[in-house]
C-alpha cells in the first residue's frame, strides 16, 4: 500500500467537519409522520 503523495489541509478539515456533522443531524425516518398518513387515508375515503 502506497502513501499519498500530496496533502490537502482544507480537504481534511472538510472531511472532519462532515464526519462530526453527521452525528448531529436527525436520522432518516422509515415512515411518514402520523399526521400525513391520516391526511392521506382521509383523502382516499372521501373521494
Q: Which descriptors apply to this entry?
A:
rod-shaped, 0% strand, 47 residues, mainly alpha, 62% helix
Mean pLDDT: 75
Characterize the quaternary organization of these chains: single chain
What is the β-strand count? 0
Radius of gyration: 22 Å
One letter per element, helices H and strands E, the order comes to: HH
Q: How many H/I helices? A: 2
Determine the fraction of residues in helical runs and give it as a percent range.
55-70%
Determine the structural class based on helices, strands and strand pairing.
mainly alpha
Largest sheet: none
- Beta-strand percentage range: under 5%
* N-C termini distance: 64 Å
How are the SSEs ordered, and which strands pair?
Blueprint: H1 9-24, H2 34-46
Quick structural overview:
The chain has 47 residues and is mainly α. It is built from two helices and no strands.
Describe the protein in words.
With 47 residues, the chain is mainly alpha-helical. 62% of the residues lie in helices and 0% in strands. The chain has helices spanning 9-24, 34-46. The model has no long low-confidence stretch (mean pLDDT 75).
Amino acid at each position: 500500500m502506497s502513501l499519498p503523495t500530496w496533502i490537502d489541509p482544507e480537504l481534511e478539515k472538510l472531511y472532519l467537519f462532515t464526519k462530526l456533522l453527521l452525528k448531529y443531524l436527525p436520522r432518516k425516518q422509515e415512515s411518514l409522520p402520523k399526521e400525513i398518513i391520516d391526511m392521506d387515508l382521509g383523502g382516499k375515503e372521501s373521494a
